[in-house]
Design a protein that fits this description.
This protein is an alpha+beta fold. The protein is 38% helix and 19% strand.
Amino acid sequence: MITLISCEKNIIKQIAAKPIDKNTIIDSTITAFEKKLFEQQIDSVFKKYNFNGSVAVFKDSVQLYQKENGFSDFKTKTKINDNTVFAIGSVSKQFTAVMVLLEMEQGKLKVDDKVSKYLKEFQTKEYENITIHQLLNHTSGLNLFGGKLMFKSGSSFFYSNDGFNALGKIVETVSGKSYDENVLNLFKKVGMNSSSTGNIFEGTDFAGAYLGNDKNFEEIKNMPKRLGGKEIGTPAGGILSTIQDLHTWNNALYDGKILNPETLQKFIAKSSERQHQIFGKMGYGYGIMLNLGKPTAYFHSGYIKGSPSLNIYYPETKTSVIILSNIADEEKGKSSIFRPHIEIKKITDGIENTVIDLGKEMKVPISQKIVS
């Protein structure tokens, strides 16, 4: 018995002698604080708008918040769940941009190349000087393909779906594979097992898109196949994904697991600015939007009829915020449709700034860790 007691005392002494990692304690305290704030504030947005969709917040691999509400199918009253697949609209553009940059890394193109080098449709006097770079950051002046340019290429910003559909064609030209094949290979590499395109989706968990509200709704016909048509185009807005897959994508992309560091910097660098009709003034990289002030955030909204979405990544804390929905009351206007998204982004921007400031104030250098 004496030997056992002595042994226990020695173990306690060894544990007590280990340094207390104050920074780990601070991190866990801040994480608990964040979870509480997200729960209170985002829950209030769900309640205020009776939001039909899914919202999740992840810090690296830690889930800080996730909630689903409403229906993926309003006729059968099928509830939205973890596996629900949504149309993500223009959030798709970052996948197209990344695939262009992957071809660049293989030496198959340069972003300063003229598009006319790859696509015959651009071999006209009006379009011959447009570059891949200008399509990636919407400074080409292209509006609808075949029309007159809005301005001299490179001199201003004009958001163009046709420009990104042209980028998809460039990827096909230099790779010798269809856009669908290229993007599926990318999904497989990243581990996005539930993502697809509207052209080839064969699953059963797709959230049909609706206009109106939960009491008076109209289903968008031919979804998701219509996403691959000329009106939208897969490279510009035809990808389908889930909350978990977009979280997986954010972590892989911004952790440098897809693009090399120099290429990733090209992707996120502010090379133009836009005045967004809903989210205000912002920077624009390659298929990605940027906060101009604090906190640093890379994000993109998406909208195809009935499916408003928003994907945000805060690099300083490796935090993803993903908002997916499948119904929109267009009669109230785009600003009304995106009010839940706007409010959630304001909430997450604010919490991100607070968390960064708290971390700076509370954390101590390793040399100052206390041993007790």
